[in-house]
Amino acid sequence: MENNKDAGDEPPRSPMADPTESDPKLETKSETDSQPPPNEGGEDAESAEKKEETGEDVIDDPPLSTPLSLEKAHEDMDQFLETLKQKEEASVEMPVFLDKFLDLVEDKIARYDAGDDRADDSSLLEAVSRISSLMKTVQTQHQPEPLMNRIGSIQQRAMTYLEEDFRLLMEQYRNATESDPGGHDHKGKHVEEQPQEDSENAPEESELDFPGYSEETISSLKEIAGEMVAGGYTAECCQVYMTSRRNAFDDALQKLGFEKFSIDEVQKAHWETLSREMIPSWINTFKQCAAVYFPGERRLVDEVFADRPELAAGIFSNLCRGVVIQLLNFLEGTAMTKRAAEKLFKLLDMYETVRDVIPKMDELFSEEHVAEELKTELNLAKSRLGEATISIFGDFENNIKSDTGKTPVPGGAVHPVTRYVMNYLNTSGDYKETLEQVFKEHSKIERADSTSRPHGESQGQNGKEDEKAAASPFAAQVMRVMDLLDSYLDSKAKLYKDSSLTSFFMMNNGRYILQKIKGSIEMAQVMGDNWCRKRSSELRAYHKKYMRDTWHKVLESLKHEELTVNGKVDKPKLKERFKTFNALFDEIHRTQSSWVVKDGQLQSELRVSISAVIIPAYRAFLGKYAQVLDPGRQTEKYIKYQPEDIENYIDELFDGKPHQSIAKRKT
Which intervals hold domain Exocyst complex subunit Exo70 C-terminal (predicted)? Predict the structure, then answer.
């Protein structure tokens, strides 16, 4: 075996292929040293003489009458090193058996290099431990340079093999994951990919399987790391560990579907791709990292570097920080994309993810300065998302105000903007607590929309609700949006030339708004009972106005006044009244059967209220005056409807389907 030494060092010593083989040097030593043992309790004369001449302690070599084994050499080295601890001299003469120990270690390394003794890692670790201790000792003393070089060379070779072993053991996580392409561990559990909706409970099951090393492997990693650190090879050990675990994290992120993207790449991505694929993957990855991978990584590093907690903390911090920064870069890129109302809820999902991760990160990073630094970065990221949320809500208001279309919605139906706004607010209600938090944190940020109606304009309108809004920035925001929507609908209602259709439109949209608010627990809490009662009162007013504008003339035609002159019915006036009723009812039916009420309850309420007013009046009028008309063609000409017909035709109103004129049906 070649010894890597400088040309000026001692010539290489032949390693012992077998401890039982004879060594020329050993035989020579045995012959020259085969002297009678010193007198019991006395001191060897030569040693005593040497001590007398030099003034140094001389440590006796062990008897070498038999070949020295590595195990025996370990014992002798332990004794020698222990003796050195008790000596105060700056220089101690190295015992003769030291050379033999170094020969044996070199032989062990050579065998290890050839692959013969790789199963016996423990003996190599023991040898390395003593070599490291010896190296520290000779560095503090005035020992010959060749000896120091030889010890250093042996230590370097040994550490090289330990480093390689450490790397191979660290790579064993790949065997656990690559053996099952589906991402299942040996127990059949699905480790990597978890359904997003079950992310809260999934970590408890898979956490036990990450990072996937056996107890035996972790024990070996701990032993090797301990020897490398003790021998001064901390940097090499940490480098191997960090490289392997970074690769492991990259594999884990890839299996979770998360890819590395620069901030610029995220900004340029299509929103549809971001919202449907990239953001859900990011959320799942961040949650899994905080719940599974980071805790598992913390346990692993704490076990491998159990004797060096500061070192373990530093490795864990650097490793996880790199992953967190990668995740936060994606967040920043998303927050910097062009503002749009439809992006709000995905940004809130990301906001909640970061918010919920922060406490978990505090638990994992016990070191105060590291925890504070990471917490600051996470809070800054959360703040950027909050600012984007505030900005999007401002844009949402502007979208309502910017719609200046002059075309009324056909049939007084619920306006598309009404549906959009209410669905948007109801979905916002699902994020009520989060939005409340966002608006409170950013309550001092000036709104970009300087034309937004100040909250003070609505003071006094809602009573206690205004006080509630003042205490709740999100409630104030919602009420501001509702005020904008009301103003918007007022302007759209004025586009109708028919006053009854105007009332119908406001009633229809108002009912939709109220039902949406009542249908959401969160939004009902935000708006409050007073607002709901006030809105119900407004709807009743619109209902009454519609009835008056539409059916008042119909009822006027059924009045009995002025039909009797001198006790006799004025037939021409009676005929005119029947003709007026028929024409009005026919026109209302023709027109309002195409009006749209999608709310089944409102549709039924309208039909019932119309029937309750019209049918009794018509039945009474018909019962009193039908016999006045001559039977036959005259009756058929003026009396077109029976009460049952009126009821059936009323039931055709507001279904959004234009019906043929009643008169044409009868011809």
Answer: 281-652
